[in-house]
Amino acid sequence: MSEEEVKQQNIDQELEKSEVSEESQAKSHGEILKEQICEGRKIYTLSTSSVLMSSFTAGLELGFSYMMLCSMFYFFSDYLPETSLFKIIALVYPLGFILVVLGQSILFTEQTSLLTLPVLNRKHGLGSLLRIWGLVILGNLIGGWLIAFVMLWLGPQLHIFDTETIVKIGNHVADFSLPTILVSAILAGWMMGLLSWLVTSSKDTVSRIIIIFLITATMAFAGLHHSIIGNIEVFSAYLLGPEITLGRYLWVQSTALLGNAVGGAFFVALLKYRAFVNNVS
């Protein structure tokens, strides 16, 4: 047996020792890592149609965040300056994420680190990772496009927001240089990876809701680029206004996806995994 194989066997043995204790108030690093790897491996066993349907559902459900942030922006537009409006929408931004995470739909940014861990643990290959990432992204984007069309029609019909609000929000997301969007998206992916890690570490629903709210509200307040809800925001503005061209939409979207992937895979999955295995002899 090679040195690498011995090392991997030791890592697997250490993970097997990481059993969750009901008496313990907090899970250990190994317990969280083991649960994350197990959850990630379950997704790899799902059929293609199941992954697509679940990720499509996640894209749709994030539309509720979009509906609420547009509604709040529109409602307070006569009372607050625009700079303040882009901050207070952070209060309703978490809604869709709470629905997705607690409902266990497959969201790319939440699952990025989760799906990377089985590859780092040598249970799946890089090709399998890229394939399932592609399926999840496709489902999330299609769900986002569909809910964008629904909201474009429904918002003005219900008088909860208008087309001007949609264009302002989309332009606000897209109106940055690509390097800025990339670094912003890396931070957002990092935070979403930590969200997945912290949700696994918690033992009750209330704690999970608080974690989701704090992390996603922080992302919204800081204006970090999240590729899936950002897809809805920028795509909607592209459909309505000349400010965002198809090329600009595609560049913003692809840059945000790349940044989110790097943030979740490297800054969470790789670093958390290496922090564990470096203690394994």
TrEMBL record:
Q: Where in the cell is it found?
A: Membrane
| UniProt entry keywords in alphabetical sequence | Membrane, Transmembrane, Transmembrane helix
* UniProt name for this protein: Formate/nitrite transporter FocA (FNT family)
- Enumerate the InterPro entries for this protein: Aquaporin-like, For/NO2_transpt
What segments bear the compositional bias annotation Basic and acidic residues? Answer: 14-28
* TM regions (residue ranges): 51-76, 88-108, 129-156, 176-197, 209-229, 249-271
Top-rank lineage group of the source organism = Bacteria
Q: Name the PANTHER family on file.
A: FORMATE TRANSPORTER-RELATED, INNER MEMBRANE PROTEIN YFDC
Q: Where is this region: Disordered?
A: 1-28
Molecular functions (GO terms): formate transmembrane transporter activity
Membrane topology is: Multi-pass membrane protein
Source organism of the structure? Leeuwenhoekiella aestuarii
Q: Which GO terms describe its cellular component?
A: plasma membrane
